[in-house]
């Protein structure tokens, strides 16, 4: 394989978060063909950290070395200070945040101001308060450091890059609609198939979690917040809607599927344990849809013309593409624009899972080479 970068260009990478996606990302990065342009200079979980500004070399493999490091992660300010020593002309430094953590997300302006690029599948910074989003934009504009977040919507699928391309080439987006949650897609493809019957709702949710599709807490998928966050992220790339959601996903009209009694469940494990008690109510919804020859699908809509941004559980005829063409954790996203008028531009494929999400993060990283 040919080399990815001129040999004098080394990109230093600091990785925060080595859970499902993070661990796969580190494996994908280390497996790149030589000469590998990337050097990991910092690696941290919430409990352990490794730092080596010349590039970490692993003796027993990165997992074991990190586990045995005996060092706790320092503050984000300290990390930004250390990494900023590496920011010199023609050398890039990148923070890769593979957590779902709000505090890490809130620190992006700090890193960007210091000239450190930020790449992440973490939706928090781009789908919350508009103030943080604006701080990120200004910090990036001031230093020239970039932030790339392709995996925040549709995992590795080219959703954000497609939308940016449409907008930047002067197309007008009228509506974006589709199935945006890999978890919800998997759950309803299995629970409410075109033939009408399927397994119990709680068992499908448990399997979605085991497959690595869900957020760390599955309620964050089932309450529609994950779709609301993705709709917020996309809306902010559309000029007419840039400031439409000042408090982010909380302003998106969203239907929650979390039973009221489970709303304050602390852990994902406890949530999964208690969910079977509510199987009957989901079964009733499935039967109602099936009686009309319809399936249930959880969809999101950004309707620019009518100013509607919503996430809801809808019924679709058994013959609709959402009923017949989706499988596994597939996302399907349709862009209706001025240029794609009669027939929308459609992107479809796996929208969750460690391999495809880490691939989206890797492909953002490769954009810096
Ligand atoms: N899974 C998927 O299909 C997709 C995931 N994403 C996004 O990717 C991100 C990661 O998801 P996923 O890997 O599934 O989640 P995991 O829960 O498996 O991993 C998250 C990791 O973040 C670590 N972490 C949390 N806080 C900190 C901190 N302050 N410093 C260092 N590490 C920290 C946790 O470490 P510890 O274990 O030590 O607590 C945990 O291992 C999320 O933002 C998610 O929304 C996006 C698209 C698809
Ligand atoms: N939990 C999310 C993961 C990707 O963002 C989903 O199911 O889509
Ligand atoms: Na994507």
From TrEMBL:
The keyword Amino-acid biosynthesis applies. It is an enzyme of class 1 (oxidoreductase). InterPro entries: Asp/hSer_DH_NAD-bd, Bifunc_Aspkin/hSer_DH, HDH_cat, HDH_short, NAD(P)-bd_dom_sf. Its EC number is 1.1.1.3. Pathway: Amino-acid biosynthesis; L-threonine biosynthesis; L-threonine from L-aspartate: step 3/5; Amino-acid biosynthesis; L-methionine biosynthesis via de novo pathway; L-homoserine from L-aspartate: step 3/3. Residues 17-148 form the Aspartate/homoserine dehydrogenase NAD-binding domain. L-homoserine binds at residue 215. One of its GO terms (molecular function) is homoserine dehydrogenase activity. One of its GO terms (biological process) is homoserine biosynthetic process. Catalyzes the conversion of L-aspartate-beta-semialdehyde (L-Asa) to L-homoserine (L-Hse), the third step in the biosynthesis of amino acids that derive from aspartate (the aspartate family of amino acids), including methioinine and threonine, the latter of which is a precursor to isoleucine; production of homoserine leads to a branch-point in the pathway as it can either be O-phosphorylated for processing to threonine, or O-acylated for processing to methionine. This is Homoserine dehydrogenase.
């Amino acid at each position: 394989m040919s080399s990815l970068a001129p040999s004098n260009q080394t990109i230093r990478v600091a990785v925060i978060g080595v859970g499902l996606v993070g661990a796969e990302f580190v494996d994908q990065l280390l497996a790149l063909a030589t000469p590998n342009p990337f050097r990991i200079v910092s690696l941290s979980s919430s409990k352990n950290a490794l730092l080596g500004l010349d590039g970490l070399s692993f003796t027993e493999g990165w997992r074991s070395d990190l586990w045995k490091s005996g060092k706790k992660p320092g503050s984000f300010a300290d990390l930004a200070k250390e990494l900023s020593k590496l920011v010199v002309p023609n050398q890039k430094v990148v923070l890769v945040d593979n957590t779902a953590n709000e505090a890490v997300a809130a620190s992006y302006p700090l890193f960007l101001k210091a000239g450190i690029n930020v790449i992440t599948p973490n939706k928090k910074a781009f789908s919350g308060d508009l103030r943080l989003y604006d701080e990120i934009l200004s910090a990036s504009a001031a230093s020239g450091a970039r932030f790339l977040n392709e995996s925040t919507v549709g995992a590795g699928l080219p959703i954000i890059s497609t939308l940016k391309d449409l907008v930047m080439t002067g197309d007008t987006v009228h509506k974006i609609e589709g199935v945006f949650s890999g978890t919800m897609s998997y759950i309803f493809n299995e629970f409410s198939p075109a033939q009408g019957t399927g397994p119990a709702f709680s068992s499908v949710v448990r399997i979605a979690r085991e497959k690595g599709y869900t957020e760390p807490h599955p309620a964050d998928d089932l309450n529609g917040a994950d779709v609301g966050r993705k709709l917020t992220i996309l809306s902010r790339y559309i000029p007419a809607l840039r400031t439409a959601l000042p408090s982010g996903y909380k302003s998106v009209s969203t239907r929650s599927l979390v039973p009221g009694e489970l709303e304050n469940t602390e852990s994902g494990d406890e949530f999964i344990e208690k969910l079977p008690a509510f199987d009957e109510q989901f079964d009733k919804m499935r039967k109602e849809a099936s009686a009309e020859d319809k399936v249930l699908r959880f969809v999101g809509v950004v309707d620019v013309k009518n100013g509607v941004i919503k996430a809801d559980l809808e019924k679709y005829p058994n013959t609709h593409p959402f009923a017949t063409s989706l499988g596994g954790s597939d996302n399907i996203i349709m862009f209706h624009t001025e240029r794609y008028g009669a027939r929308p531009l459609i992107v479809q494929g796996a929208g969750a899972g460690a391999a495809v999400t880490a691939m989206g993060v890797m492909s953002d990283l490769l954009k810096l080479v």
